[in-house]
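Anyone have tokens for Protein FYV10? Sequence:
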Amino acid sequence: MAAELTSTKLNAESHLLLDQPLLRLPHELARRNFKSVQRIVEREREHIIPALKEAANGSLAGTQTPDQTLASLDAMISRMQGLKRKMETLHEEEKRIQTHSKRRIQHLQDLYKIQNLADVKYEEWSRTRLDRLLVDHMLRSGFPESAKQLAKAKNIEDLVDADTFVQCQRIAENLRNGDAKEALQWCGENKGALKKSQNTLEFELRLQQYIEMVRTGQPMKLIEAMQHAKKYLSQHIETQSVEIHRAAGLLAFPKETNAEPYKALEVPFRSFSSHTSRATIITSSTTITHCSFRGLVCTQNTSLPLGICFIEHQLSISDDLGVPHLLDGTERARQTCSICASYEKLCGERFDHSAEREKLWARTDTRNE
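Reply: yep, here.
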């Protein structure tokens, strides 16, 4: 009996490891909102204090007429009223973020009130979590309206990040339509994060704008392209020298040239998803993906079609899961080590890469036949 109770005891900490993104995004949004407030206040302070001193000194010294002093004060009052409106908007955003954070913390805190997996409260909590994972997956898969309807029906709107995903998808759609304006605006708002991560998204967008101008082949557009390059691309010459020289070479080749590497540059608005995923705190892999891996590992059944993990190759979920996904770079290696370690700990044996690889190839050959 004691062994049975031990086996069904809930380990809340292990759940929190998978649900870290639930709190990470609101925290990052709150930090950015605070930075916006700080930046706006500093900018207004740098303008208001000198203007106020100038008006006061001018009035005392008699170098300004009363009308000039009143006009100066009216201008300062107008700026402060504008600052107040901005602060009210940012305050409402902060309250919204805090509401989301409070609801999410409470959702995770409920785990610590559940003693074991047999508790009916755990089933209710798991259903809420499953709904949240489904909404998250739908948002990442490009079905925002369905995701919003599900979140509303299940009353979990504070537990999902629909607005953030919708904004990202809107920017991506605009890029596919050849409009980089909103993407560049996003780069301006997140300039610090882009610089810290050495992300080249803004340069890529400016380069693509240049390419689009050159692709028209119109003389006026070519002149505009050269001015654009001088203004936006030349400042990156130390780090992006090869790309800039290739872009300059486009001017010497006709439209729809077959000469490489210039032909490759003329692809209409290329994909920037890899840059945005590195610049934002929205990870490229879904939580439902991670849960699927852990769930398969925890079955302790080695005959199940596990997604094979190779350190030196891409990690993919098997087709049996119905959620194809690719991980790359450091994230791939981290997930690989994590999955293998979990398997070895739970199943009491080492994860045999070669054996599982042969199983995967055998299943693949059977399907192809």
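The chain is about 70% helix and 0% strand.
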